[in-house]
Every structure is written in structure tokens, then in C-alpha cells.
Amino acid sequence: DAADSDTPAVPRSDSDPPKLFILPKDVSSEARVISLPNPANGATARYYCCPRQGFYEFTRIAAPKSAPRSWLLTPERRAKASSASATTTIDQNEEEPEDQGTVKPEEDAPTNPLAKGYITKSPDIFLATPFDALFITLPALVSAKETQKQMFLSIDDYLDKLSASSPHLRELLYTESIKRRLEERVAAVCDTVEAGEEKMYRISMEKLAKEVVSKAQRLTANGLPASLEEKFVRTALEKPVMNIRREDSSVSAVSETATDGTTPVETPDTQISTEAASGSQASKDDTTSTAATSFCSPPAPSEAKPAKPEIDAPEGVPELLRLRTAIDFICSSYLSAPLRQQVQKVLSSLPDVDFSPLRTHMEHLASLRSQAQALRSISDNVSRKRATMDDDEAAEARAEKKRKKDEEDAKKKNQSRGVKQLAKADTSGMKKLSAFFTK
Q1: What 8-state DSSP symbol labels residue 23?
Q2: More confident residue, 83 or 344
Q3: Which of 99, 199, 301, 412 is most deeply packed, by most CB within 10 A?
């Protein structure tokens, strides 16, 4: 009981637990977290602003729900290890020098909740990534009504619109470096005219579209992430399988041969299905191995992953699809819906990027998929008819068997009691009555 009373109680979960952030290095002491309207949907979002380095957005990195994680936070403590070869010691009464940047846990306990360590339930972490100030200014550059004509305005007029949408940004505009950065990004997508000593700006959709294309090209310079590449490029450019009926027949032939216990002989018809079956089995094995070893040590360097096959598409088409995927991502993430439609219209007429080869190839793939769907429908209809015929034959056999059984039951019911008793008598060694009437 005494031991149980000495055991500290488990603290309750916090309703507002701390969050982990990864912030950039060498930021100004005036850097702060601010609230600004999201340029895509207008909802309030948090950003990190540094007068020297610019704006950053927070990207949330979360662990999958299938693999629960948590963070263990420990306070920074002073190292008290002594060297074995040390010839001098510190007097016990002498105060040890404090390391710069360290905090005593006992002094920090009343103010810092993490002084004694902390375990977070959520494994999320927020990464501050560079954010172009251009997207902050776009809501002010575009008119609220689509039918309203765009006018040339000064930079102060646009900044006044921005400050009205966010009190945090209103305070930041007093910083000269922030104001100059916003003005530079406004000039990158606007037409300008001189009105006396003041420069006037009006947004140009063509310049904005070129800016989006430039960002997309930088994004795809080293290729898309593996997940995006698989979902939006490889899957989209995958050709459909046209020989469905031949493949179905080969699968049945292989399965029947395997059932008999003999080794199947690979013919040209069965080779495709055998390779497909082995490929699917290999993928299942890989998936099972990955799921089973996700918590184990990493594989040895010698175990290299098999290289993925090249994309079967005309030259230049995969690059165009990657570029279009990046453009769609930028537009959906940072442009409002009306502005997105205007930019998409301008993109189709830009001379810098020609998406016609991509459109032609995608139309060809759509035609192949429709043909494959038609063949699949025919194959399904034939399979249904064959199954229906088999069902009819089985039904007829069952009906015939039932009819014969009913006839036998009827004969047994019509027999007299004496005949039934004689049928039970032992007649072994006796002649039949008909034997006496033979010639």
C-alpha cells in the first residue's frame, strides 16, 4: 500500500496540447506567427512572417492512422559527465558554471510545462515552407465582381485593401522590407503605367499565367514525388488491356491443369496470364513484407528495389502531364475559383507551353479504354450466357432425378401389406416362381 501511495498519478490529457514546429534558421527577432486569409478559399490560416526572409506557410505532416505514433519531449539538461583522465575536480561548495542556452528544470518548472518532459498524443508536426507573397496580394488585385473592369491603382490602394482583411498584416505593412517585398511581387504580375511621379498597377492574366507555369516548371525540374507520380502520371498514361477474352480462357486453362496436379505448359495464349498471375502474387508478397517489416530495422543496402518500367507514351508526353499536374496543384491550392478559371483559359493560349500532344495522346487512351470496356462487356455477356446454359442443364438433371424418385415412392405406396412382408423374407437358396414355368 505504501508503494502504491508513492506512485505518482497519471496526469490528465490536455485539452490544448503543445504542437511541434520546424522553423527556418537565421530569422529576425521580429519574426512572428500571423493570421491571414487563405488566398484560395478566404478562410483564416496561420503563416510565419520574417521581415528579412519573407513569408512561410505551415505544412502539416501527419503519420498514417494505421501506424500510431507519438512524440516524447524532454527538457534540455546540462551534461555532468566527467572525463576519466581529468586531474582536477570542482569543489562541492563551488558553484558550477552554467552552459549558455540551458535552463535549470527546477527553475523553469513553474512557467514551462515541458520542463519535466511531455508525451504528445498526436504525431503531427508543422513545417514552415517558403510562401510567395504574390498569393497574399492576389485577392486585392482582382475585382470582387467578374464583370467589373480592372482599373490602374497605386500600390498604396492595394495595400489598403489587404490591411482591411487582416489586422496582423496592417501592422506588418509598417515594416519597409515587407512593404517593398509585396510591391515587387505585385509588379511581377501587373501592367504598369506612370501617373506623374507615381506608378500605377493593373493585374495581367497573361503575366500571372506565366508566373504559374514558371513555378510549375521549377516544381517538376527534379520530378514529382513518388506518390503523385504514381497516381497522376503512371496511372493516367497506362494503356488498357485489350485481349480480355483470350486472357480469361488462358486463366481457366491454367487453373484446370493445376487442379489435375500436372505442370502446365506455357503456350503463347497462357504465357500472358501466367506472367500476370505471377506479377500479382509478387506484388502481394511485397505488400505483405512491407507491412510486416514496417516496424523492423531498415533493409540492407544490397536489397535494392526493382526499377519501375518506363512509361509507355510518346516522347515529351509524361513531362507535359507532370507540368499540367503541377499547374493544377498550384491553381487549386493558391488561387480562388474565379481567378483559377481565368488563368486556365489563358494557359491554353500561351505560346511557351503546348499541351496539344498531351491532349491528343489522352484522347487516344480514352478511345482505347472505351474499346476495352466494350470488349469487357461482350465477355461478361458470354460468361453470363454460358453460366445460364449450365444452370439450365443442371436444373433439368435435378428435375429428372426427382421425377424418378417420385415414381419409386408411388410404386412403394401402392404395394399391399403382404407384398411388403414377402419383400422382407429371406429368399436366398429358393427358386423364383417363374423358374417353374420355363421350358
Answers
A1: -
A2: 344
A3: 199
